[in-house]
From TrEMBL:
Residues 5-62 form the HTH lysR-type domain. The gene is VV20888. The lineage of its organism: Bacteria, Pseudomonadati, Pseudomonadota, Gammaproteobacteria, Vibrionales. Pfam families: HTH_1, LysR_substrate. GO terms for molecular function: DNA binding; DNA-binding transcription factor activity. The keyword Transcription regulation applies. This is Hypothetical transcriptional regulator. Gene3D superfamilies: Periplasmic binding protein-like II, Winged helix-like DNA-binding domain superfamily/Winged helix DNA-binding domain.
Amino acid sequence: MKSKLDLNLLIVFLEVYRLRSITLASESLGLTQPGVSGVLKRLQAQLGTALFVRKGRGISPTYAAIQLASEIEPAFTKVESALGNVSGFDIQAHRVFTVYVNEAMMHIVRPKIEADESMGNCSIQLHLTPNNEDELFHQLSLHKAELAIDFGYLSNPSYSYDAFYDDVAVMVCRKDHPNIQNTVTREQFYAEKQVLIQRRRTDLLEANYFTEESLIPRELSCECASMVSMMALVSDSDSVGIMSGLLANKYAKHFNLQVIPLPFTSKPLKHFMVWHKRNDHNPANKWLRNKLSTLL
């Protein structure tokens, strides 16, 4: 190996390693695919070992690549954090932050952001979280968003997490429901047809996600894509649905609904904030996390 190594080669290597794709790494770094491939060839030549091998339509890191990444990634993360601290962050500078949120947080946080007069010249744009956690991590790695707020804890060693808000699951039905008023028993719950929400992640937005108890199969009335759609469907039928208490209480009057505690032992519906660890000490990202946390 040569005595001097261009650190830019390692930056490209780490991005390819994180994304497991030359195509995605080139997009993230603003380089051409041949450019990224050339960098990898130069680095492999200097190290005297292969770093990636073909696997199906993608690439897979070799043992040498895994070792190299485990040693240098923490150091590069510290360098990025140090540079961010030096450059600082000024809310009077024009900047647009992108944040991924789930449906409940979209409806609760957006009005508070618009009413906040302490944003300086910064703005926060909210987008619905991607359909699965792999895509979410992929988008955060590509710098498509500064952070995300979503249900549940998404375990990934490259990301940091912080509890954001504890919600509770509730049952909703129309106010003039013929069989349910103010409270619901297990027998009543299982006797009614259910409006369900399409799963976005494994066990997400299903009753089993909100309780440790084993629930018996329920009769399906229909399946919808959002909690707002669920409220609309429940409002003009005898069906019932399970959803976020935060969102249910916000719109219960609009849809003429009853919001009723579940007839079984439930657990908190936890919302977590997640961001890439490279942004742990980044002043702008820290400001954004603090701003969002104080809104609720």
